[in-house]
Inverse folding.
């Protein structure tokens, strides 16, 4: 009797839990009706299923469901195997995956799932409308994500190009610095070339010697330099050439006046010929006309 009473109490507790779950579902549906359609779709719902509900309402998988699941797993294995490099690795991976599929198939024998409520009517039109509304609402965000991904790809490419250019610039800069350093050291005094490797002390005697050497070098350059103003022969030639040019200018000044008169007379004659209608003859002879 004690066992029978305890079983009845367990059944009553299970029925009360089921009734509470049904009441909770009805309240949740009423709240969703009051909320906007989009919020009702996006708002997550968390349900806690008791062990009594699982043991009472959940049933084992049917043979069709198990066959379908195993077929999906085998198809996934077949699609993954060609991507495995090497024949030996592919065979080993195939054996391992086949064993995994067999283990999953064995576990499906004891797996229970909630049963589909045949008598419950689902509003398929409402669900379809919610899906379409959700797709329309998320479409701008999907497009924005695609644009951001394209922009990110472009920026990554530009960054890669900038890094390559920076690396090339650094290599050129190193080469140029080495060349400039070599040239700079080549122009320095032999004692100064060793300042990086060995510090050298330069006394006053050495400095005075360098100053005297520099002065002697400048005096030698001044002696070898050509100064036209100080060359007497060159100045005499300049004066002679200038005098001859002036004499030629004086002698041809009268001829310049005659040539200018001839040019004016030619223009006057051409103007008269054009006035008399002789422009064609002027053109045939290749003479320029006066306007």
């Amino acid at each position: 009797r004690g066992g029978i009473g305890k079983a009845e109490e367990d059944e009553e507790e299970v029925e009360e839990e089921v009734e509470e779950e049904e009441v909770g579902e009805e309240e949740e549906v009423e709240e969703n009706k009051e909320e906007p359609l989009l919020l009702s779709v996006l708002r997550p719902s968390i349900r806690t299923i008791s062990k009594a509900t699982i043991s009472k309402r959940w049933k084992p998988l049917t043979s069709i469901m198990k066959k379908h699941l195993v077929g999906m797993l085998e198809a996934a294995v077949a699609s993954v195997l060609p991507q495995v490099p090497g024949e030996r690795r592919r065979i080993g991976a195939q054996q391992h995956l086949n064993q995994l599929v067999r283990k999953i198939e064995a576990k499906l024998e004891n797996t229970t799932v909630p049963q589909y409520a045949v008598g419950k009517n689902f509003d398929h039109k409402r669900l379809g409308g919610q899906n379409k509304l959700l797709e329309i609402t998320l479409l701008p965000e999907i497009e924005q994500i695609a644009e951001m991904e394209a922009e990110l790809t472009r920026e990554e490419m530009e960054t890669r190009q900038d890094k390559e250019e920076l690396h090339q610039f650094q290599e050129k800069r190193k080469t140029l610095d080495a060349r400039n350093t070599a040239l700079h050291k080549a122009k320095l005094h032999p004692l100064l070339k060793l300042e990086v490797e060995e510090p050298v002390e330069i006394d006053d005697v050495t400095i005075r010697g360098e100053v005297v050497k520099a002065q002697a070098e400048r005096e030698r350059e001044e002696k070898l330099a050509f100064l036209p103003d100080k060359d007497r022969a060159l100045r005499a030639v300049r004066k002679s050439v200038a005098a001859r040019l002036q004499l030629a200018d004086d002698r041809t000044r009268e001829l310049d006046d005659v040539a200018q008169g001839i040019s004016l007379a030619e223009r006057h004659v051409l103007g008269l010929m054009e006035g008399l209608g002789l422009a064609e003859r002027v053109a045939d002879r290749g003479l320029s006309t006066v306007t």
Notes: Residues 1-8, 27-35, 195-202 have pLDDT under 50 and may be disordered.
